[in-house]
């Protein structure tokens, strides 16, 4: 694995080759990763995976024409050929008035914050196997568990570098540790499956394998004996396992591509009250050890904290340079690169601020409702905001959980759901999008 400095030099070298080949401007993205994972099932080793990858991608501009190409062959001859092919492709491409590198004056030069994304602790294969076994054993020890899909433990390391022809170059590395367990409970026709998992940059931030396994087992047996839910309108409580998806739909609707294509249900809502007063949704790409922390974006612009929703009002869009030009706005430092091609958009570490009520208090006045722990399918219309997804969870009767339910659909419209949303006080900070328990009144259930 190359160091960040070596990775940066690789990207710079390819940009220079592109300039020599005839590119007016260019950028290059280098990425490498390695990982090792161990899977066990029923107390026995089932799979060992080791992977390594290295890839470099080049984007060139000839006037308003551009092309992107990538390769895993990093030999000098292959890189020269890559640059020449990219130029030929660009000359044959259609013009794009909005394409181009980020504005020179907005490039970040550093120094960048230390985000603490690299853990010096690298577990051995034996340690990974013991962790996976411990997680599965703890899950299988829960009364009612009858089978297992297995336990897994893995470790990985990655490096990312970006260089541009107009003066930016930077790179950073990160490590990852993960644990999971998935088990089956019950017999005959009453079988249920659930899991627990966690991923962190630092091993010290992981829960113990026993905690992961026990949680997987308890979640599974809690679903045994699932009944049906009657159809009708009722309050819905979204568990933190799934509540983050509601914020994810918001983020998808305010990306530059959704706005420029006029394919967002939030198109005319900039600055408007779309949540209740007091609701705050914030993005912080500089959170130490955050899963989506990064010192610069995919175009070489500075990343920074911002409030996406403030006092319930939508504050702005998430823009790369191309969409910003089309909207006559400034890019927001949210460009993202996934290998080659033009930048997409990604946030940093997002959270919806906690409310004042506990989850128990949030449901205390619910006479008949549902507590959702699982969402199934992708039934969300990004243009209209119409929302309809399969779900499972628990009935709420007179303010208390009253048994598991499954095979029902929860439906509504995201604009109305956002307006009706109330947050509990149980915010935790271990996901890329961190959201507490949420309550949304007046949703439509389709069950028996």
TrEMBL record:
<dbReference type="GO" id="GO:0005829">
    <property type="term" value="C:cytosol"/>
</dbReference>
<dbReference type="InterPro" id="IPR002510">
    <property type="entry name" value="Metalloprtase-TldD/E_N"/>
</dbReference>
<feature type="domain" description="Metalloprotease TldD/E N-terminal">
    <location>
        <begin position="26"/>
        <end position="90"/>
    </location>
</feature>
<feature type="domain" description="Metalloprotease TldD/E central">
    <location>
        <begin position="121"/>
        <end position="224"/>
    </location>
</feature>
<comment type="similarity">
    <text>Belongs to the peptidase U62 family.</text>
</comment>
<dbReference type="InterPro" id="IPR045570">
    <property type="entry name" value="Metalloprtase-TldD/E_cen_dom"/>
</dbReference>
<dbReference type="GO" id="GO:0006508">
    <property type="term" value="P:proteolysis"/>
</dbReference>
<protein>
    <submittedName>
        <fullName>Modulator protein</fullName>
    </submittedName>
</protein>
<dbReference type="GO" id="GO:0008237">
    <property type="term" value="F:metallopeptidase activity"/>
</dbReference>
<dbReference type="InterPro" id="IPR047657">
    <property type="entry name" value="PmbA"/>
</dbReference>
<dbReference type="Pfam" id="PF01523">
    <property type="entry name" value="PmbA_TldD_1st"/>
</dbReference>
<feature type="domain" description="Metalloprotease TldD/E C-terminal">
    <location>
        <begin position="231"/>
        <end position="447"/>
    </location>
</feature>
<dbReference type="InterPro" id="IPR045569">
    <property type="entry name" value="Metalloprtase-TldD/E_C"/>
</dbReference>
<feature type="region of interest" description="Disordered">
    <location>
        <begin position="179"/>
        <end position="212"/>
    </location>
</feature>
<dbReference type="InterPro" id="IPR035068">
    <property type="entry name" value="TldD/PmbA_N"/>
</dbReference>
<dbReference type="InterPro" id="IPR036059">
    <property type="entry name" value="TldD/PmbA_sf"/>
</dbReference>
<dbReference type="Pfam" id="PF19290">
    <property type="entry name" value="PmbA_TldD_2nd"/>
</dbReference>
<dbReference type="Pfam" id="PF19289">
    <property type="entry name" value="PmbA_TldD_3rd"/>
</dbReference>
């Amino acid at each position: 694995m190359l160091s960040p400095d070596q990775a940066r030099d690789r990207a710079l070298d390819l940009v220079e080759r592109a300039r020599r080949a005839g590119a007016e401007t260019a950028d290059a993205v280098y990425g490498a990763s390695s990982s090792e994972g161990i899977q066990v099932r029923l107390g026995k080793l089932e799979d060992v995976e080791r992977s390594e990858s290295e890839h470099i991608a080049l984007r060139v501009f000839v006037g308003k024409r551009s092309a992107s190409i990538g390769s895993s062959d990093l030999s000098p001859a292959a890189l020269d050929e890559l640059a020449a092919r990219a130029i030929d492709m660009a000359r044959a491409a259609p013009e794009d008035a909005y394409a181009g590198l980020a504005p020179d004056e907005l490039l970040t030069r550093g120094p960048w914050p230390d985000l603490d994304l690299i853990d010096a602790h690298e577990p051995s294969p034996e340690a990974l196997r013991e962790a996976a076994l411990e997680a599965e054993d703890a899950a299988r020890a829960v009364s009612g568990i009858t089978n297992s899909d297995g336990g897994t433990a893995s470790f990985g390391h990655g490096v990312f570098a970006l260089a541009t022809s107009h003066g930016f170059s930077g790179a950073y590395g990160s490590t990852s540790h993960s644990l999971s367990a998935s088990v089956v409970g019950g017999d005959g026709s009453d079988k249920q499956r659930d899991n627990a998992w966690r991923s962190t940059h630092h091993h010290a931030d992981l829960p113990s394998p026993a905690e992961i396994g026990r949680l997987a087992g308890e979640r599974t047996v809690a679903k045994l004996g699932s009944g049906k839910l009657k159809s009708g309108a009722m309050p819905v409580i979204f568990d933190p396992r799934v509540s983050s998806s509601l914020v994810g739909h918001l983020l998808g609707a305010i990306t530059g591509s959704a706005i420029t294509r006029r394919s967002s249900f939030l198109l005319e809502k900039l600055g408007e009250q779309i949540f209740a007063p007091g609701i705050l949704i914030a993005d912080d790409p500089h959170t130490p050890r955050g899963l989506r922390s990064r010192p610069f974006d995919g175009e070489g612009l500075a990343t920074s904290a911002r409030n996406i929703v403030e006092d319930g009002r939508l504050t702005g869009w998430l823009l790369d340079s191309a969409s910003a030009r089309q909207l006559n706005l400034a890019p927001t430092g949210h460009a993202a690169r996934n290998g080659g091609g033009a930048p997409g958009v990604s946030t940093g570490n997002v959270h919806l601020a906690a409310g004042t009520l506990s989850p128990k208090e949030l449901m205390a006045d619910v006479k008949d409702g549902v507590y959702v722990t699982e969402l199934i399918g992708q039934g969300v219309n990004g243009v209209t905001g119409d929302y309809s997804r399969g779900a499972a969870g628990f009935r709420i009767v007179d303010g208390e959980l009253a048994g598991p339910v499954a095979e029902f659909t929860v439906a509504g419209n995201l604009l109305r759901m956002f307006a009706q949303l109330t947050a509990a006080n149980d915010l935790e900070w271990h996901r890329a999008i961190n959201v507490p328990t949420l309550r949304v009144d007046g949703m439509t259930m389709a069950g028996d």
